[in-house]
Amino acid sequence: MTTATNNRQFRLVRRPQGAVQAADFTFDAEALRALQDGEVLVQVQYISLDPAMRGWMNESKESYMPPVALGDVMRAITAGKVVDSKHPGFAAGDYVTGLLGVQEYAYSNGQGLTKVNPALAPLPLFLGALGMPGLTAYFGLLDVGQPKAGDTVVVSGAAGAVGALVGQIAKIHGARVIGIAGGADKVRYLTEELGFDAAIDYKSDDMAQALKTLAPQGVDVFFDNVGGAILDTVLMNLAHGARIVLCGAISQYNNQQAMQGPANYLQLLVKRATMRGVMVADYYPRAMEAISAMGGWIAAGQLKTREHVVTGMETFPDTFNKLFTGENNGKLVLKVA
Amino acid sequence: MTTATNNRQFRLVRRPQGAVQAADFTFDAEALRALQDGEVLVQVQYISLDPAMRGWMNESKESYMPPVALGDVMRAITAGKVVDSKHPGFAAGDYVTGLLGVQEYAYSNGQGLTKVNPALAPLPLFLGALGMPGLTAYFGLLDVGQPKAGDTVVVSGAAGAVGALVGQIAKIHGARVIGIAGGADKVRYLTEELGFDAAIDYKSDDMAQALKTLAPQGVDVFFDNVGGAILDTVLMNLAHGARIVLCGAISQYNNQQAMQGPANYLQLLVKRATMRGVMVADYYPRAMEAISAMGGWIAAGQLKTREHVVTGMETFPDTFNKLFTGENNGKLVLKVA
User: B47 and B25 in one domain?
Assistant: First the structure.
């Protein structure tokens, strides 16, 4: 049971043009209602802010998920506590993750909810290394990228939620790892704290030159979160038989012009290389494999995680934009209360 | 021995801008010289005109072969007859194929020369279905594209040397085949003569609409020779797990602007699709596998070939340009004499 009577929610009311603005949403409270049979009521405590959400705000039907309809609560992955349940599978006090949206409370029929144990790890970690970004990094790198010991692995968006994990998992598998990120602080974080072999600051370094110097034999695996000029530069530096793991293109999501395609894509031909997409939902049946591996590495001190927690759901539009300006440091999470 | 004393040659003297012009070459005769030990002299009879040659004329070092140096005989795959030999592996009267260039006679140390038997097939066929385009089609489709029976296979440049073979090999393997080509004649050729299930005229049809209608379940395998708008359109119509075989991008080779990259490449992510390049040289060790399969299908009437033979080496620049204007019908070959 909860004593709250109101539920504050961000509803999408306008398709953003470029960066998200506060006026693209309403932020109002609606009254909580009585729970129906088969339902649970979850108090949302943490809201995961992920680049993919920007795509969900667009009209396009050409994505892997339908767009958020105008008037609907903004879709987001969340972690929270069951405060009331008329569902046999959940009891008040359970902790869960799921697509419950940018709101304080959510009703659910239990579909898509995953119970998590907050004694094992802080709740935000289930939105990061032990959640969707963790699965994306683990299966994208190992299943699609297939790095071998001694390979040169490059990851873009390397200080982000997925990228930081990718680089560390690649190191654990014996690869040489080069991160691409924006700014001296991130470069330092990657090389000094996470153990990357090298990092390139795309904002100040000559990327093409740096890549040639750091990867003279070419790039065996490129895990791309960014797209645009970074993808084109790495394409010109592939090793024979390279694998490019397409995870995202954050440089393009706020674009108001047409998407910039990789002009150098014929290097895939010259280098007999492969470009393949990774979609985390395909790996949900194997989630436990990733979570136990990641959990073990975290416990052993081999994998470091960093959550960037911003408190106050009301800051949602501004905080979300940090993903695109690069102001986030680690997995960006909104703490509701 | 030959009684000829002169060798007419096309030498590249200027990097073409856009379409090739006659003034990009010199066309002069040089005297034949005495044969040295270990050499053969080949009378070039047929010169294969292939889109890749346009790339070899550019300065860029980012290709799979070095550019043709200014002043050098233009590189080309040819078929011809050994007219003199001081090489133990070849005798006068042998027929060979190899990279002998746009010239009437060529000296060779035998490296890269392949003996062919003109009793088995007309010589130009060894530059087409039984040569490089045949290997490209066979291994690109079967090894990289991996079509299954019932798959929908789309091929661009479908009336070209490689495309026409790809579509027919896919049919032999039980796929549904849709060709993309320019003009009503080519569409008719593909559907009425080669047995394609359907063909789209990119010059007059609404490609996106036609693809949606003809491939309502999406495209399982796309063999791309063209790039540009055609690649972007097919990317929007992929089936789950689709394979894109990158073979070329003829729409872009004469470009004087930057290469147009596929703006819709993130569909690879949405559809868990793969884009991979095929480079025929990788398959030379397995050439006999393709040639015997293709030869068998030709003999059985399952595979039709068409060579577009233009007589007169002196027409080289103009004839070469037919590849890019789409004026060729089938494998374009220049007959020297």
Answer: yes
Q: Confirm if A86 and A36 have CB atoms less than 8 A apart.
A: yes
Partner residues linked to B73 by β-bridges: B11
**Chain B nearest C-alpha distance from A277 (Å):** 4
Whether pLDDT at A1 is above 60: no
Q: Are residues A109 and A220 in the same domain?
A: no
Looking at the fold, whether A29 and A138 belong to one and the same domain comes out as: no
Residues 6+ apart with CB under 8 A from B199: B158, B178, B179, B180, B181, B186, B187, B190, B191
CA distance A181 to chain B (A): 21
Full domain range(s) for residue B75 = 6-125+306-335
Query: Which residue type, as a one-letter code, is found at position B224?
Result: D
Residue environment code for B229-265, b if the CB has 16+ CB neighbours within 10 A, otherwise e:
ebbbbbbbbbbeebbbbbbbbbbbbbeeeebbbbbbb
Nearest to B138 by CA among B282, B264, B294: B294
> Does residue B218 share a domain with residue B310?
no
Residue A59 tokens, joined = 């009209």
Instruction: Give yes or no for a contact between A173 and A152, defined as CB atoms under 8 angstroms apart.
Output: no
pLDDT for B62 equals: 63
Interface of B with A in 167-206 (CB under 8 A): none
pTM above threshold 0.90:
no
Asked if A274 lies within 8 A of B276 by C-beta distance, the reply is yes
Q: Which residues of A touch B248 (CB under 8 A)?
A: 266, 269
Q: What is the ipTM of this complex?
A: 0.82
Evaluate if residue B4 carries a pLDDT over 90: no
A295 vs B155: CA distance, rounded Å: 46
